[in-house]
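Continuing from the previous page...

OK, I double-checked the sequence for MerR family transcriptional regulator against my notes and this is the correct one:
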Amino acid sequence: MTIGEFSELTGISCSALRYYEDKGLIQVERDAGNRRIYSDKDVEWVKFLQRLKDTGMSLKDMKRYSDLRYEGDSTISERLEILQKHEIYVEEQRKLWEEYSENLKSKIQWYKKQL
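Thanks. Re-ran it with the corrected sequence; updated structure tokens here:
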């Protein structure tokens, strides 16, 4: 599929896909005319990259994870370690956001009482 079709399918802009490719996060096949050819396998990979980004994984860690993924199954333990470290980060951030939410709720209640 073309980059436009792939963009529509994944919900990720063409420019973001080109950026991911430029940074080495995705490796895309090319046709004889040097046009990108995305596969169904690429769909899940790019969606996963987007989730990593959305949860705050650094580009450096995403790049390392991607490099390992493209190296194959011999890197599974290293990839697992990266994801486990990121899970700790995500959990810490979730706890912070929960605290922020509780603080907002408290402030909202205070304002409601003032009215």
